[in-house]
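input
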Amino acid sequence: MKTPVLASVAAAASLLLLAPTAVGAQAADNKADNNRGGTASSIDSDMDALKKITADYLAKKYNLDQETAKKRVDAQNEFGKEAKKAKDELGGENAGSYIDQKRGVLVVQATKDDAKNKVKDKITKKDTEIKVVSRSMNTLEDQAKKLTEKLGDKLVSTRVDVENNRVVATVKKDQVNPAKDSAKGMDGVEVEGTEIVPKAQDDIYGGQQIEFSGSVCSVAFNATKDGKDVFITAGHCAAGRAPFSHNRKPLGRPIAFDFPGPDMAYASLEQGWTGQPGVDKWNGRGVAVKGSEEAPVGAAVCKSGRTTQWTCGTIKAKNVSVNYTKKDGRGYERMIGLTQTNTCTEPGDSGGAWISGSQAQGITSGGAGAPGPDGRDRCLEKVGRENISYFQPLNPALQKYGLQLKTYNGNGGNDNNNNDNNRNRYRNRR
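output
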């Protein structure tokens, strides 16, 4: 399924790309749509507005008052640091961490009492709970990998459910019993059925539209490679190696991509364009990008993309394996290492940006959707169900391709490039 192409590049945010909502990679049709290109004209370094948007989501989702919701948002960055500290300290006895948004606490899990006691002295955040569970993350991830291979084309997705210390395999409804037979004897595994099939979602300003070969995706983030400006998007948007444009003006060409497996790519930025360190919030402003520290499971996260624009949700699982149905419906493409959320995404959002606070998180890959009256997939909340969406974590792309993320320095520019123009994420200087 394809989505209409659009117009102008906006403020100092990064480029974003999004894929179609059903599991499987596909771009949206390139049809003129002047409301999808992007709206940002400057970067908003004041985080209060962004915190309010995130707090509004948490308040609605978890029935919190505004003051409590804002405190939860403020706590997320420190929770992320504490979760990383606990993981490093626990080593093989680490069983994962997650934010319990209902109670406002970080839950750190270990497999032994002595490990729990060892990490207890290292945790400084008071709203942190440490508990002992039976299975380590190494064990769960190994089980998930084995189960993924066993189930093959029966599989929709496998994920580690950190909160319940188990592996969940989702398969098509008519494959539940065969899948349970395949999983027999595997400890800590649950099989569930679904009629929903995930797909990749294609459609430039962090979150703004890019066009290629009659299709559209979104831009994720701006970066540099050997001192030259580049932008990051989804691998399935670059797989055909077609040149990208924005507002029907040449924007850049794919340099490297990975898909299927991971879903990441980066492209050159043509002379006359400047990539800015922000993400389009679709209200005329861009959100400043200040780093790429990974948020834990349970954290609130927002995404920017050309179709559904700015939407928020929570991180449900990491290192998820998903079978994306191919465009022709024949077979699947196996995706690995994705992060699952309950955020609304639709076709054309692929390649778009994911951010938690001021920290860049990932690149829209795909999701599951329900067909609308026009045949286009819509996010599941529009039919009364919880959304299912996936993003490619950003840090592996930065590391593999040797990229330096453009970050906002608070002085109207970015730390990677002495560009004093903070108004347009991508600005055409010609």
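quick obs: The chain is about 20% helix and 35% strand.
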